[in-house]
Design goal:
Order of helices and strands of chain A: HHHHHHHHHHHHHH
Number of helices of chain A: 14
Protein name (chains A, B, C, D): Ion transporter
Strand content of chain A: under 5%
Organism (chains A, B, C, D): Novosphingobium mangrovi
Low-confidence stretches of chain A: 1-14, 258-262, 266-276, 284-290, 302-312
Domain Ion transport (chains A, B, C, D): 41-252
Mean pLDDT of chain A: 74
Structural class of chain A: mainly alpha
Membrane topology (chains A, B, C, D): Multi-pass membrane protein
Shape of chain A: extended
Transmembrane segments (chains A, B, C, D): 46-63, 75-94, 106-131, 168-189, 195-215, 227-247
Distance between the termini of chain A: 19 Å
Oligomer: homotetramer
Chain lengths: 312, 312, 312, 312
């Protein structure tokens, strides 16, 4: 039990909801939240299958030809899935020590969003369109990435992205600035008669151009506009090199290393719980596997001891 | 002979079909499957020329103007190529010890697909459309990459891709998730009146947008839709950096190294036969050039000895 | 005071306008140009908010539906912002020792462009279109990048781009050459009847194709033209690898290093003041943290001593 | 003179035409082919200006509105430029020891193509369209890259591309194979009624899709076609990572190193003359600056001595 908690603390975010209470609820907890036991893995597989099937039903229901013919069946299936997800949500709530914390967490909200739209559509048929929020159920599959054999790959990508996030922010801010200035310029050059009906529309066009998407719904028609567009395309093409370079050098740097190569803030940003600070000298940076403080040599508290459940 | 087998074992996948039987069939084998002899190289060149020519005929036959004028000649040429490929297939079957294994292998099926559609079209003219399967003949040219002077480049690329395949799988799963969620969102925002006729169509549109293809057949027209689209384009643009970073860092890591830098599973994934495990202690990971087990020091079996032909 | 100047000299371009005169004007200087004090930070935040709001007003005013309804309100807001920016410009001028240098600097001109168009539109209503120059106000936000916590990221990106600028120039020159030659070729192949109305238009089309934007407003229609286009697309696709490779290897090289890894010309190009030359032997290349000349061992002047304010 | 030759041998391809004969023709040679003297640099600048101007005239002449008004002036200018380039070509021929070698070299043919079309158009007005070959004059500017301050950057890019050329060939062959197979598949799925009129057209479409150009002139319309297209776009998007990775790792590897880090074949491919082999032991690989053979210590022949002019 303690070992499972240690593993969990080191590889995933420690659950905010404080883990399971003892007794039969602990057994439900192991099934619903952990994938260490056969029952837990089966539970995960059933939930994933239900998610995928329910999303397929949402897809099929949106196709006019299929809706015309199978609308009743789709409705029955939808209520079946909603019942299943409601039961799952109830199970998760019931087995936790602090269900309210779970309900407010990211996955708690996603789990709730999986069932609420169907009930709402029953009460207020007018907001039928909200029902497509059900596609967000797919986000629940992400939960599984953290539990599978792909955790190392998931972590490496997350680490590289987290480590580059500040550079990418600076880069994106510059791109937005360029796009706004050049979009406004093209609004002046081409004007509403050529499809650049307002500055926001021109900025939308500038983004389609600089990202090389190029729908072709709005097109420069004056010689000057085409010249500016040519420069923008070359600029956008060259600029693409920058985020690639940032992410590549981060991936190259962090490959083969675990999360301990990250500083505290970055580890927090990708959902890795920071190790507890040394109780003797307060030193905060330790390798997760460290048993002694590297600064003063004192015995380090084990994560489960450092954050005792009841005190939360 | 033993040397040729050793070379073959180390640089390519050992043929599943157990190599040639002795006698005249061994000579045919050397010509049809190996490129070590002048006759073998000539055989390869003739087959490649026939493949390219037959594909050109398929191309030309699909152009209405050429079909109207030369349909008869194209038909004659097609039967000529089919006869040639049938003879080649018979030769390959006849010279093998275990022809059935070859027939079930990847190249065996491709070789069969090169001739079957023409015969089928004779029996059932209705399935005329299947005849374009003949273009798959081109896949047979890939066989040659493994035999030529480009084998080192082929291997380096294959190694880099194979080593990144798990990270790319995680990345693609995330992209599919994002595309599905954003495509559904745009279906809600824009709706069928603006061309987003169903959720699958919206997802198709989301993929054309995030990969920066941007056909322009479906286009957002509401201000909110254009705003979401702008975010999607910037996101897709930035995301492109991730697979590039993954592959780049793998290529940089593996350049100049041979396949022995890979673990067992990766080597299998790119068609490199894993070295046989140590007969003394069972240790499976050895460098291909290793003569002694690194774990127990026992003499390692040579590949040709470890996998004797008759026992297959 | 001296410390602040040293910091400023090393991390940003030393202000060309020679810093503040003593007295109350120095206090205004600290608020208007520095972000070290709470008042300075508040000043920055107010100015940024005003910039963003005024740009939003320009955007909204360009949308016909909003303009029809709120034109008066937008005009009042515009005059309010113009008054605010005029006051800010006056403050900046008044607190400087050499206001003329500031007025001629990049940010001085941008600051002026933020207010002049509105006054001009009052005098000459005909040049109403010039009013969109106001969007350039956004460029003033760049000033903030140099002052914030993102300065390290900003510098690393700027260093990588500055270090690759010569290679990128060679690359762009080659791309322009290819685009011109291939665009002219397509003009000959397709001709005015297929939309390639002149060589400049064909070059514009070649750029949209090779950068993979692909609007689809001009499209090859002859078989030969489509074949050449296919080659161009593959070429453009492969070529994109080159700037990415350049920037990536520079980012990888310079990450973790400060500007001292750059040569003098590159540091100048990204706005880092070069260290003063040795007063004993004239050697110009020194690390910023150097205390002694590496060539003759003489004590190096500290930046603030080497460029005393009054002598400017 | 000998020094100039040595420099030339090391940084550029040794001229195939054997250098200048002695006397006044040597002086013309230095002006026309070298950029070491002020006269040579001026000659280069005049020629480049004439090239750019003449190309601008070709551009302007292709614009219908300008042609209608200035056709006569453009014709006069064209004959002026042709006379200038003819004189330049005559000068280059006259000052060489082996003019025929020059005439057959790459730049010799480009120089000839700069003047021939105009004369041809005089004789056979029907082939007027050939006159656009004059744009190829731009290629002559490439000659200058080898002489300027950008030679180091030009060489580094050329080295990285030359070193990756075999990997890129393997990659492009794979891409062509994929594009042909998927293009044929889409021809079967969508068929002529949806714009996929023949297999070559489908392949053209597949290339526009996988390179993410996406004109939108041909578009999948069946659900199956759109599904296959989605897979193709994701595949093309991911594939783009491969050439980037190849070029990036080569640039990273070769940065800061001179051409001596390349093997003999690669150096030949980018126009670097291989050093002559040692006359004592035959060892072929030497640094260009080497004076003694690294294998046997014998004095190395200097390039000019090893390839004496008269023996050519």
């Amino acid at each position: 039990m303690a070992d499972a908690q240690t593993f969990e603390t080191e590889t995933r975010a420690r659950p905010l909801w404080g883990g399971p209470p003892p007794g039969w609820r602990a057994r439900i907890y192991l099934i619903a939240f952990e994938a260490e036991t056969p029952a837990g893995r089966l539970f995960d597989k059933v939930v994933i299958a239900a998610i995928l099937l329910s999303v397929c039903v949402v897809f099929a229901d949106s196709i006019p030809r299929l809706h015309a013919r199978w609308a009743r069946q789709f409705l029955f299936a939808e209520w079946g899935f909603t019942a299943l997800f409601t039961a799952e949500y109830a199970l998760r709530i019931v087995c936790l020590r602090q269900p309210w914390r779970y309900a407010k967490s990211f996955y708690g909200i996603i789990d709730l969003l999986a069932v609420v739209p169907t009930y709402l559509a029953l009460l207020f048929p007018a907001i039928h369109v909200l029902i497509d929020v059900r596609v967000l159920r797919l986000l629940r599959i992400f939960r599984v990435f953290k539990l599978t054999a792909y955790i190392a790959e998931y972590q490496q990508l997350a680490i590289a992205l987290a480590a580059s996030r500040r550079k990418i922010a600076v880069f994106l801010a510059s791109v937005v600035l360029i796009v706004v200035v050049l979009g406004s310029l093209m609004y002046v050059i081409e004007g509403p008669t050529h499809g650049f009906t307002s500055i926001p529309v021109s900025i939308y066009w500038a983004i389609t151009t600089m990202t090389t998407v190029g729908y072709g719904d709005i097109i420069p028609q004056t010689p000057v506009g085409r010249f500016v567009t040519s420069l923008m395309m070359l600029l956008g093409w060259g600029t693409l090199a920058v985020p690639t370079g940032i992410v590549t050098s981060e991936i190259a740097l962090h490959r083969g290393r675990g999360p301990e190569s990250l500083d505290r803030a970055t580890r927090g940003a990708i959902g890795l719980s920071p190790a507890p600070p040394c109780t003797a000298c307060g030193e905060a940076e330790h390798l997760p596997r460290a048993r002694h403080c590297h600064a003063c040599g004192a015995h380090l508290p084990r994560p489960a001891e450092a954050e005792p459940e009841p005190s939360r």
